[in-house]
Design brief:
Structural class: mainly beta
Number of strands: 13
Distance between the termini: 53 Å
Radius of gyration: 18 Å
Largest sheet: 13 strands, antiparallel
Oligomer: single chain
Length: about 240
């Protein structure tokens, strides 16, 4: 097992002799740089199919603390008003025509494509994973992230963190069996103001869905404090009032 780990580290160009950094501190820095503790933002999700067909969604999202997030679909018109709420490990979907929140899981996807609900409604990495050092080179730290519990979508992540910016560059998501589920690649570092400098684009693909790709574009990220009432089942039909 040790020999296999050493060979893997050498294969990715990361020296095992240099594991002198605090992985927990690096991961805490990632969470701090990616977004304020409480914020609002807009996202466009693009699902690209093997034949080139594209489906696009626009979401308005607010988050509070380490366990509360709600996302409202703005576009396309057929999805307008659909709302997803996350409280800790629990997720609900509100559909206006149904009029009642229904439970959903982190591995389902409310938009199809390669992103699942966990990707779209992600809280801080440090809330869901413990971190251990796995290597470094001149420009990157490699973190080995292990899920804190069975409710987390991916059992293990390999996260490459850029030393200069402190934000993730590439994340590989694995099942407990060691199967690679998907790869997520961040890019297009942008200054959003309010001290927020982070990637504006996230692209993912999966060996389980060959030929498919999903893209998430971030915009309008800014700090915003909201009452706990916003993050409740009763408030889901009213999230549009926040804009």
């Amino acid at each position: 097992m040790l020999r296999a780990t050493l060979l893997w580290l050498l294969a990715v160009g990361l020296a095992p002799a240099a594991l002198a950094y605090d992985a927990t501190a690096v991961l805490a820095g990632v969470d701090e740089r990616m977004a304020p503790a409480a914020y609002e933002m807009y996202r466009k999700l693009i699902n690209i199919e093997p034949d080139g067909d594209r489906k696009e969604f626009v979401l308005y999202t607010v988050k509070k603390g380490t366990d509360k997030m709600v996302a409202l679909f703005l576009d396309p018109p057929s999805e307008h008003g659909r709302t997803t709420l996350r409280l800790g490990d629990n997720l609900w979907l509100y559909i206006p025509n149904v009029g009642k929140p229904i439970r959903i899981t982190s591995l389902q996807s409310v938009v199809g494509g390669v992103f699942n609900n966990s990707d779209i409604m992600r809280l801080e990495f440090g809330t869901e994973y413990t971190a251990a050092p796995a290597g470094e080179d001149d420009t990157h730290y490699l973190l080995d992230l292990e899920a804190r519990g069975p409710a987390v979508a991916y059992d293990r992540l390999k996260m490459w963190v850029d030393k200069a910016t402190g934000v993730p560059v590439t994340i590989e998501a694995y099942a407990a069996s060691g199967l690679l589920i998907k790869t997520l690649r961040y890019g297009d570092i942008k200054d959003f103001g309010h001290g927020i400098v982070r990637p504006a684009r996230l692209v993912t693909d999966s060996p389980l869905y060959r030929g498919y790709q999903s893209v998430m574009l971030f915009d309008g990220i800014r700090p915003r404090e909201l009452a706990d009432e916003v993050f409740t089942l009763d408030y889901m039909p009213r999230v549009g009032e926040l804009r």
